[in-house]
Amino acid sequence: MKEQHETLADEVPNVRVVGVNTPKEMTAYVKELRDKAAAVAADVSWNQRKEKRDERLFIGCGMTAGTSFVLGIALLLLFAVANIGVPPKLPETKSETHPATTANPAQTKSVTVAKDKVVDVPCVGIVTFPASISDDDVSAACKALFDREEEARKKNGMPSCKTP
């Protein structure tokens, strides 16, 4: 725009312009064109400063975004690698005969041994005891539960539980 206004200001005396008839009007018109060229030149320098500032800001934001993306992917991979060896929190179970089963005939033959002691008492159901309780205490508790259920069945006129 600056060059266009300057070129027009330089060539106006050689070209006939509609509305400019006198040399005084021609001088005023040339001055107006040169003022517009100067205003555009001032705008250009102001816009160049803004452009440099925005360019630095754009580059800085781009670097931040790229770094954040790479860091995020690295942290996700680190999290995944850290969790590869971690097993899910499930109780450990082994299938074997529980020692309390042989001591009390009211219990079933095969019981699952885990962190807690799990016993299936006939007519009562599955009972879980903490692992800290001894096998003798488990047997005594199972016997007491079975006896209590037998007494309740007798009082209610129900048939007695059959032991395997």
Short summary:
The protein is mainly alpha-helical.
How would you describe this protein?
With 164 residues, this protein is mainly α. The chain has two domains: 2-82; 94-155, no CATH class. It contains four helices and four strands, in the order ααβαβββα. The chain has helices at residues 2-11, 23-82, 99-103, 135-155, and strands at 94-96, 111-113, 117-121, 125-129. A two-stranded antiparallel sheet has the order 1-2. A two-stranded antiparallel sheet has the order 3-4. β3 and β4 form a beta hairpin. α1 packs antiparallel against α2 (23-82). It is rod-shaped. The model is unreliable at 95-103 and 105-114 (pLDDT under 50).
Instruction: Please mark out the parts with pLDDT under 50 across 5 or more consecutive residues, or reply none.
Output: 95-103, 105-114
Gyration radius (Cα, Å) is 48 Å
Seen as an oligomer or otherwise, the chain set is single chain
* Number of helices, counting only DSSP H or I runs of 4 residues or more: 4
> Helicity level, as a percent range?
55-70%
Mean pLDDT across residues: 78
Secondary-structure class: mainly alpha
Tally of strands: 4
Q: Give the termini separation.
A: 105 Å
- Indicate how many domains the architecture comprises: 2
Biggest sheet: strands side by side, in what order? 1-2
- What spatial form do the alpha-carbon principal axes imply? rod-shaped
Largest sheet: 2 strands, antiparallel
Give the H and E element order: HHEHEEEH
Strand content: 5-15%
